[in-house]
Amino acid sequence: MSYDLESSLAGSVGEEVIAVIDAPTGAPPANLSFVRRFLKKPLGVASLIYLVAISVLCALASFIAPYGALEQDLLNTTAGPSSAHWLGTDALGRDILSRMLFGGQITLLGVLVTIVTIVVVSIPVGLAAGYLGGSVDRWVGNVTDLLLSVPNIIIVLAVTAIFLENLYAAMITFGILGSAGVIRVIRSAVLSVREELYVAAARTAGVREWRIVVRHVLPRVAGPIIVQASIWGGIALGVETGLSFLGVGVAAPAPSWGGAIYDASQLVYQDAFMLVPTGGVVFFTILAFAFLGDAVRDATFEGWSAGARQNAMRRRRWGRRPLTTDTPSLSQDGGTDLVDPQPEVVGRDAVLTVSHLSVTFESFDRAIKVVDDVSFTLHAGEVLGIVGESGSGKSVTALSILGILPPALKVSAGSIVMDGVDLKGLSEKQMAAHRGTDIAIVFQEPMSCLDPSFTVGSQVAEVVRRHEGLSRRAAKSRVIELFEQVRLPGATMVAKRFPHELSGGMAQRVCIALALAGRPKILVADEPTTALDVTVQSEILGLLRTLQAETGMSILLVTHDWGVVADLCDRAVVMYAGYIVEQATVEQLFLRPNHPYTRGLQLCNPALVGEAEKLPSIPGSVPAPHNWPSGCRFFDRCSFATAECATTEVRLSRGDDDRLVRCLHWRDVVALSTERTS
Ligand code: ADP
Ligand code: MG
Fold it and tell me: Crossing angle, helix 134-149 and helix 167-194, to 10 degrees?
């Protein structure tokens, strides 16, 4: 970051520059070009044509078959191919071609029954397990384990014994048993989609859960579902043929493909040719199902790697961050601080009051605090910064306000009060009503907040319609209005683009438009410029400043960048190792930092260091939550530390100018700053 700190302090990082549209990155949208990608796979296309053709021919058997299925000609048995009987005749002189066509009706219908059973059972169950998680997921897991452990074919044979020669009962049973594996495939596909930031973004924008599943999750798992359906089509055909071969599926003399193979096998020494058309059809049909599945899978993955590659790369970091578990149970009971950490700002109402907020990571028998007793107030029209190095607990604090913590984390203490309501105590449904309209969020990586399969216009329109109940047409014009509000050039054109066709800066503007759709009172921005190029960063900061002035909303800005704090914030909370170490106005923080950490961070700011100078850094790194020392958590990195710091649990107290600071030696720090400025 190359900020000129003084001009930043004066709030003039430069004129707002409207983003120049980057050249689109080229790849066509994932869903539209799926067909095109599939058509490039000759084997897949040939298989599809074959399957469609054979199904149609069998369906039309009554019209096109030269003979009846049971029509015998005992004078012309086991004859080879001839003009009268293209595929020859069987032991009873029945026309093999006609029997294969009629038999295909029953056989392929049996396969269809299995596929439909699998789809009907596994899609809702797999979606529920993956999306809802928790006990639903556990129960589904147990049942699928059970189904996978029983030998399918034995169960199916038992069913045929009960429902005598009822092929469809057998195929439905087989479908239910087969669903177990497919449920797992869908569940894991949903799990990875659920982690995508655009799903979290849709949720925070207030989109209903079932709509998120239908619109954002289902399309992304459609590929694996088709692949599975195709694989199971082949397996079902094999099983079905086997059952009829054994005589427990379709009973003779009714025609079936398995029955035809059985007949051929009985005459293998008299008329070996009979096995060729009968076995051949089954062989090629199973092969076609397999090739079709392969082609669909390839076309799907190619789509992901083109359109959604960026998305996968930009998946949210916190969702995947591992946490070391060899930790003692909650030993960091810091108690609460000595002072009331809610400074009054004269003439401004509080819109959000976070009091003594603690967030814990819970695993098995352990609970580890990751955010510890954090309190601050956000006032009307104020921009409040949360600053600190990576791992300080800034994002977790921000996410807990919106009630969108990752599943492993829980708010374990404190309150988050907005308009007299404690958001912490709300149910998911009640909280959903606040998201988007009262509080909205903009994340660090704009591309991952947008679903790669839809145009950005339609995504914003979805949220607009949800919030304002507008007609499609009215929603469209509101989208354009929002895009103009976030200064997107050519708003109408941009609305028709897919996320990967936008530059990072434009995508972030779209995300801001998405957040503004519900006219929120508070905008939480978690490192909104970190993933962007330097020039674009200042444009987005400028935009946030303009929007704040235009709408009067309050902004909670999470950042590790002092340039951003200087540029945008009125006050800031400095966080270190899960707790607040200093809280003051930006001017106070810059002119006379009280905490050695604040001072250290500022000295490391590239804006304060000359070009040729080596950039200083604070030695060491933020301790992980399970390693927080019992004394001052900054102790081992601090040049002001004394023996007392290692043993005393330091509380927040009043520092210079009545600000809040968590340091025993803040006066020494102030003295040093005063020396420097004088
Ligand atoms: P910051 O935003 O300041 O970089 P975070 O708020 O993301 O930091 O993380 C604070 C702490 O919470 C980290 O030490 C991290 O280990 C822990 N944490 C974050 N996300 C998770 C998670 N999903 N599961 C467990 N711990 C997490
Ligand atoms: Mg963060």
Answer: 140
Cα–Cα distance measured from residue 597 to residue 652, given in angstroms and rounded to the nearest whole number: 14
If you average pLDDT over every residue of the chain, what do you get?
A: 83
Alpha helices in 133-166 (DSSP H): 134-149, 152-162
How far apart CA 36 and CA 316 sit, in angstroms, is: 31
Per-residue pLDDT tens digits for 463-517: 999 888 889 899 999 999 999 999 999 999 999 999 988 999 999 999 999 999 9
**Ligand 2 center–CA 591 separation, angstroms:** 26
CA 527 to ligand 1: nearest atom: 2
pLDDT at 643: 92
Separation of 406 CA from ligand 1 center, angstroms? 10
Give the tens place of pLDDT for each residue, 183-215: 988 888 888 788 777 787 787 777 888 888 888
Question: Would you state the pLDDT for residue 569?
Answer: 95
Nearest CA to ligand 1 atom 15: 391
Check pocket membership of 41 for ligand 1, CB cut-off 6 A: no
Using the mean position of ligand 1's atoms as its centre, give its distance from the Cα of residue 620 in Å: 18
Ligand approaching nearest to the C-alpha of 397: 1
Report the atom number in ligand 1 closest to the C-alpha of 526: 2
What residue's CA is closest to ligand 1, atom 10? 393
Half-sphere exposure of 251 (CA within 13 A, CB side): 6
User: What is the pLDDT, as a whole number, of residue 60?
Assistant: 94
Which parts of 371-503 fold into alpha helices (H)? 394-402, 428-434, 456-468, 472-485, 491-495
Give the pLDDT score at 528: 93
- The per-residue pLDDT for 487 is 93
398 C-alpha to ligand 2 centroid (Å) = 9
Provide the token pair at 124: 């809702």
Question: Which residue positions in the chain have pLDDT lower than 50?
Answer: 1-30, 306-335, 343-346
Is any ligand 1 atom within 6 A of the Cβ of residue 406? yes
Q: Is the CB of 367 under 6 A from ligand 1?
A: no
Cα–Cα separations (whole angstroms), residue 57 to 49, 54, 159, 189 = 12, 5, 31, 36
The answer to whether 9 and 585 have CB atoms below 8 angstroms apart is: no
Closest of 633, 127, 114 to residue 388, by C-alpha = 633
**Closest Cα partner for 409 from 304, 300, 319, 475?**
319
φ, ψ of residue 94 in degrees (nearest 5): -85, 145
Q: What structural domains and CATH numbers belong to the chain?
A: 42-73+84-302 (1.10.3720.10), 350-584 (3.40.50.300)
CA distances from 9 to 17, 548, 566 (A): 19, 17, 5
Cβ–ligand 1 distance for 321 under 6 Å, the answer yes
- What's residue 23's pLDDT? 32
Taking the CB of residue 105, how many other CB atoms lie within 10 A of it?
18
Q: Which residue minimizes the CA distance to atom 7 of ligand 1?
A: 395
Q: Which amino acid, one-letter code, is at 267?
A: L
User: Which of the listed residues 320, 359, 362, 370 should we mutate to test ligand 1's pocket, taking the one with most ligand atoms within 8 A of CB?
Assistant: 370
Q: Which ligand is nearest to the CA of 622?
A: 1
Ligand 1 pocket member 407 (CB < 6 A)? no
Q: Give the ligand whose atoms come closest to the C-alpha of residue 443.
A: 2
Q: Strands 383-387 and 409-418, how do they pair?
A: unpaired
